[in-house]
Amino acid sequence: MLDVLIVDDSAAIRKILQRVLRQADLPLGQVYEAGDGVEALRALGSQHVDLVFADINMPNMDGLQLLGRIKDAEEWKHVPVIMVTTEGNESKVMAAANLGAAGYVRKPFSAEQFRQTLEGILP
Fold first, then answer.
1. 5: region left, alpha or beta (phi > 0 left; psi from -120 to 50 alpha)
2. Which end of the chain is more exposed for a tag (fewer CB within 10 A), N or C?
3. What's the burial of 34, exposed, middle or buried (CB within 10 Å: 0-12/13-18/19+)?
4. Which domains does the chain have, with CATH numbers?
5. pLDDT tens digits for 37-90?
6. Which residues, in sequence order, are CB contacts of 82 under 8 Å at separation 6+?
């Protein structure tokens, strides 16, 4: 079972993402939520997480800053981070890849997009 952390400033998007992940037949265990990168770091510090889905554009600490903090931390750097974004801006997608993102999915998303993205990431 995969314990996942969904990081998005929209509670509605977090709920939709949970539903789509279930539709993708992921073996979901615990699903944790955070409204921004600051909350996500708190959650990572107190919960075991196997996979992170993070929006790029958020207040307080955006997804790119969060990704950098995760990849710099010895205890979290192995955790795959999938960026979920409305960004059409390729430079932000490239920045995420350079920081160590395992992949990205564009909004609006589908279960099939998640299956394809996670295919090479999950055992």
1. beta
2. C
3. buried
4. 2-119 (3.40.50.2300)
5. 999 999 999 999 999 999 999 999 999 999 999 999 999 999 999 999 876 667
6. 51, 52, 53, 54, 101, 102, 103, 104, 105, 117, 118, 121
> What are the φ and ψ backbone dihedral angles of 113, each rounded to 5 degrees?
-60, -45
Question: In a 3-state reduction of DSSP, which class is residue 100?
Answer: coil
Residues facing residue 84 across a β-bridge? 55, 105
Helix runs in 1-123, H state only? 11-23, 37-46, 63-72, 90-99, 111-119
Backbone angles phi, psi at 114, to 5 degrees: -65, -40
What the block records as the tokens of 12 is 């509605």
